[in-house]
Structure prediction request, 605 residues.
Amino acid sequence: MTEIAFDVRIAFGEFDLQIDHRMPLEGVVGLFGPSGGGKSTLLRILSGLERNAHGQIRFGSEVWQDDTRGIFVPPHKRGVGYVFQDVRLFPHLTVSGNLRYADKRSRRTDSAIDIEDVVAALDLAPLMSRRPQSLSGGERQRVAIGRTLLTRPRLLLMDEPLAALDIKRKAEILQYIERLPQAFRIPIIYVTHSIDEVARLAEHMLVLADGRKVAYGPVTEVLERLDLQPIAGRFEAGVVLIARVTTHDLTYRLTHLDHHGKEILMPMADIAIGSDVRLRIRARDVALATKLPESISIRNVLSGTVAEIAEESNTAFAETLVDIGGAKIRARVTRSAISALALTPGKSVFVLFKSIAFDRRAIGHRGAGLVDGADTDASV
Amino acid sequence: MTLPDLGPLWLTIRLAALTMVILLIIGTPVAWWLATTRSRIRFAVEAITALPLVLPPTVLGFYLLVVLSPKSPIGSAWVDLTGQTITFSFTGLVIASVLYSTPFTVQPLQAAFETIGRGPLEAAATLRSSPIDAFFSVIAPMAARGFLTASVLTFAHTIGEFGVVLMVGGNIPGQTKVISIAIYEHVETLNYANAHILSAVLLIFSFLVLLFVYVMNRRFPVHAG
Prediction:
């Protein structure tokens, strides 16, 4: 596994960025934070597109930049693929021409990627003779991803590749991006300001705000941190649970999941039994109770203990973190509820969330259970 | 009625073609630099390349005459080297035309490069394309319209040149007697018939050139943006 280590600085006008960090590159690393926090700038610095950046960058044993030794490897010699937010296909070439442009210049690199695999993986065959101008936004981004893969990169940098797309196209492209790490064995650094995308794609995340590193770690752990809430955005805050599919209930069309011995239900999804599922649970979709509620329509009731409470002064709300054993769940409740239920850290509570609260678009799959290979008929 | 000597016409076309080729070779890197640099001296360079637009041709011609005359260092070195003077020779005309038509090459190219922006170049770099490779494989084809405009305007502007030629070239048949000079001479000698023919040739030619540029500009696919 390759490690990337960097200690870089850049300043333009009011904005300055200063980040010292190292991390192993495996699978997808989400580079997350609010707009204007320096995510894209960091990506540009790593790729060599920001010639005015100072500092050091090391990729494995290779030094890409070291000002003290006067080393600066230009972008075309770094072997880094870059998917731009604004796509940047070459308008004077067809789709096929764009792909061949990259292919021709990377043939001598040691890589198993070939043009047929890429065309097949991204369903580009019907587009090959078209001009970029005649493609839809989603098609363009697929071609751009394919073109970048054909540079046979050692590291793939993706700068908010879904930003310009509508929700439907986003979901479509996400399916393709999700398969890249396994299919092509290239580590990815993925910039986004959407927690949904991080939760679905990334194993690790690096959080930036105001040009500084705020947090780094596994996605499940970073999302549990209440102190990062202002960065994550109150509306979207929540955690990711990883649970295993145990059974599918065909009568009620529910899928049963096991999370550290506790059962969670979700609307039936086409996922093989035994495979792990990522569930994103938004803080705003979670309620708390001090007694086990009866006669209630909510199906998911898990016991736990309050781990942390962060009241937001001048608002009605408080963020709470409840330990359910093996993971924590965030709940956004009113401050008046905290006071009425006398919630304090250490207190036993029940965590309630509607099973339909799961965002199906945000359900990611890990391990062996790919959606395509699932067989729900044989599962009951 | 006898046809006027068409020698000046061919000489003019040769001069214009040569000027165009030289300016594309020199002007392209200058325009690229102007379009991409953040250096402050770019403003000075921009002003210098635009000077021929505002200076009377006689001023440029006068300075060239001074700098290139056999008594000057450059002029005398040239005489030692070739046995000929730069002034009042075809070489002198080429140098003068290149300087005089610079803005007509540099400005359309600079505008084309600026419209394209840094995006495609950065994309090419991340596709393992060196800067030179990227220029020829991405920037040049995307700037095709700019190159067409620059070439045609440079060619046409050189054809219409008069003052500078008169100052540094004089009126030597086969050497420096271009079409505009020939027309002037016909008028001076009251040979209106020949002046009419050459003027009509120039008028029709210029119209066709501009028509071609405008038609092509409409048809050429716009790649930038």
Observations:
- The radius of gyration of chain B is 20 Å.
- Residues 130 and 209 of chain B are 36 Å apart (CA to CA).
- Chain B has a mean pLDDT of 89.
